[in-house]
Design brief:
single chain, mainly alpha, 84% helix, rod-shaped
Length: 107
């Protein structure tokens, strides 16, 4: 937790829930100072949270881009494998036809 949060907790735990009209000037100033610290802590945490959210969004975008590139590469591999299989089938067919030509008389 923050120092301001700790001060608020301490204030409430030692009777800070009593009637504010019963407080003297020093006590009012202490509460005001604690509220100012709490506000500053909240604003700092909001800035940090916004910065972290921005970093997460950037990392998500980079992850998506890397993932898309990976899927593209996998797709290219699949295309190459299909082309390779087609070329192997064509090579087998050519070899078979060549063998048939050797068998035929007059070839």
């Amino acid at each position: 937790m923050s120092a301001a949060s700790d001060q608020i907790t301490e204030y409430l735990s030692v009777g800070g829930l009593f009637n504010p009209e019963m407080m003297n000037q020093t006590q009012h100033e202490a509460v005001r100072d604690t509220l100012i610290k709490a506000r500053d802590d909240i604003q700092r945490l909001e800035r940090e949270n916004a910065a972290l959210r921005e970093q997460v969004e950037e990392l998500d975008a980079k992850w998506k881009m890397a993932e898309d590139q990976c899927f593209d590469q996998v797709g290219k591999i699949g295309e190459l494998e299909r082309e390779n299989a087609a070329l192997r089938a064509l090579l087998i067919r050519i070899r078979n036809e060549k063998d048939l030509l050797k068998i035929r008389p007059g070839a």
